[in-house]
Amino acid sequence: MKTSLLSMITAFMVIISIQCFAQEVGQVERLVSPEVSSTNDVTFRLKAPAASSVKLSGNWMPMVPNANGQGASRQLVDMVKGDKGVWTVKVSALEPELYGYTFIVDGVTTLDPSNLKVARDGTFRTESLLYVPGKASELYWAKTGPKGTVRQIWYDSKSLNLTRRMQVYTPPGYDDSKDSYPVLYLLHGGGGDEEAWPTLGVAPNILDNLINSGKAKPMIVVMTNGNPNQAAANVVTPVIPASDLPVGGMGSMLFEKSLVADVIPYIENHFRVKKNKESRALTGLSMGGLQTINTTFENPNLFSYIGVMSMGFADMSRFGVKLDVSKRDQQIEDLKKANPKLYWIACGKDDFLIESVVTMRSTLDKHAFRYVYRESPGGHTWTNWRIYLSEFAQMIFK
Amino acid sequence: MKTSLLSMITAFMVIISIQCFAQEVGQVERLVSPEVSSTNDVTFRLKAPAASSVKLSGNWMPMVPNANGQGASRQLVDMVKGDKGVWTVKVSALEPELYGYTFIVDGVTTLDPSNLKVARDGTFRTESLLYVPGKASELYWAKTGPKGTVRQIWYDSKSLNLTRRMQVYTPPGYDDSKDSYPVLYLLHGGGGDEEAWPTLGVAPNILDNLINSGKAKPMIVVMTNGNPNQAAANVVTPVIPASDLPVGGMGSMLFEKSLVADVIPYIENHFRVKKNKESRALTGLSMGGLQTINTTFENPNLFSYIGVMSMGFADMSRFGVKLDVSKRDQQIEDLKKANPKLYWIACGKDDFLIESVVTMRSTLDKHAFRYVYRESPGGHTWTNWRIYLSEFAQMIFK
């Protein structure tokens, strides 16, 4: 009790001191938002006395077809103006998950200024984050227990003539051990970069939690930048030479080549890793799924564990991407002969790319190519990719 | 020319493919904002057809006293509504610097949705970032050339009974060398955390650039979390046990003790570092300046290079912080005897803590304690702290 009282007093002093300090440096008054109840009801609040309309947009909300018949938009929820110009809405019993949300103030999308949890979804958007606790999201938290290290590393990519950045996760115990480890190469999607998996993907926490509970083998995870025209995520720190291109390079095969020619040799020369096929895994989502397909077709004996997330044999021409598929039948036969221990395909049943997965599966079936298929609810979302990573990591290097 | 044409076509294809892809995943139309001209005029744009007022708030703008006589606020600039509901303002010839800015839409502070460069200033705010190029900001850019590595490391703090996170920068060449390096311990301010110096502080780029140009010695830089009640920045990744306290602990001496008892031994056991006083430097800003003063007074023989930024002998009682200064005269004499190679004090002349620096200097002068004083224009700002880091890093380990 004594300690508890002392720590309460300390806590109170800290709050007072920071609030006074904040006034000196110009902080604004902050509401409690979002507020998560014990039953996972969530209340959102925004002070906007002069606004005529405030709506909530959260990525748990359903998409509805647009009035003009083209595309779909999220079904927004109106917030209600109350005392002192504070707009409020309460959402009932959200499922445990890591969500993104924004407010729409008189038509303009804004973050929740009361919430400092913010994440960027590649070149698409920046959103406020909401963690709803529970079984489905417990893997995403940094829990007590041993933890891995994430390194932001610059390496020379000779094949792209760029010094580039990647993020490398080493598992708990790596720095104090003499063991060699297997390596998972983990690729992001179109619009993303090397910061996607460590932030929105929560890969370091997922791996720490799976490894600490004995559900996954200790492994190194390499999170590259899959845009061959980009040195690094050019977001907080400007990078020279800075590319003005948004990102991309799907179908160019340039990233796939640099992964094999530059990234894997760098990792195998700078980390204590097992340098054989059985100790290499490759998986990626969307564009990274395409890069996984391409890389393993071109290099059938490099990886024993292969995971394709939310991507299949897509006709990418509607995205302006031309793929050379003339060698595909031969490539499938070559990979079949190489006999990887796992070829895993995962897709959401509402994913806009699900048809490409149907095509891929029927093509592979014609070749009697062995793969495991995992279909989940939902679409082309980080919710699915976090789940897929947590499942794939438990199946490899065993 | 051939390569150039090919790369232009590739670039075009990439843009098309990402834009089409973005429509599929629900991206919104994006304006060019901010647009920096060759003469550093900057145009800001926001689409807000339904808004009745849009203002620009940038941290280059002057503070003006509030109408009620209490405190000061930034002098906002009105934006003007034009075609298709796009609000615009052009700011002339901004000085080269890294700025933060926001839009105020009908009274609500929002980020610039066209700009994905976003940074969090501790618990205070999240802002859109604007880099204006030129001599004063060239140290902040990731240039071509060798680069250091930043590690996010979890370590056991026995004295705080927490597994905590810090960020450790190793200089270009560290991983391929057998040399031992000196270490700079670099502390953030109140409201900040271990992500402050690597993001808003741009410390990795500043160090890379100074080391590569021979202006600073190769060194390791340790960026801790200075809030003794906090395991790690609890922003993108929730941390269990999560503290509900905003941050703080000024005056508790708990962080200072853990720095000496936990952080320095961890670094000296896990990195190739020179383990002597002449190879240790300590500097910090604001709360981190206070922690620098406290740590070096309590441990006069630990650091040869000491830098106090934007802090002095402050009366912290107005912030609810009680400091025990009964031993100060003796501590000054002890540190004087220890004879550090550099005791550096830096402050902006408009800093709200400048009086504490005046008090500190006159107290040190009474003891004929040798220090170097650097006064800069401006106030309690990241502009000053980036400049101070770049100056301090050039004076140490020489």
UniProtKB/TrEMBL annotation, chains A, B:
Gene3D superfamilies listed in its UniProt record: alpha/beta hydrolase, Immunoglobulins
Signal peptide bounds: 1-22
Keyword list, A-Z: Hydrolase, Signal
Domain of life: Bacteria
The protein, known as: Glycosyl hydrolase
InterPro entries referenced in this protein's UniProt entry, alphabetically: AB_hydrolase_fold, Esterase-like, Ig-like_fold, Ig_E-set, Mycobacterial_A85_antigen
Organism: Aquirufa rosea
GO molecular function term, any single one: hydrolase activity
A Pfam family the protein falls into: Esterase
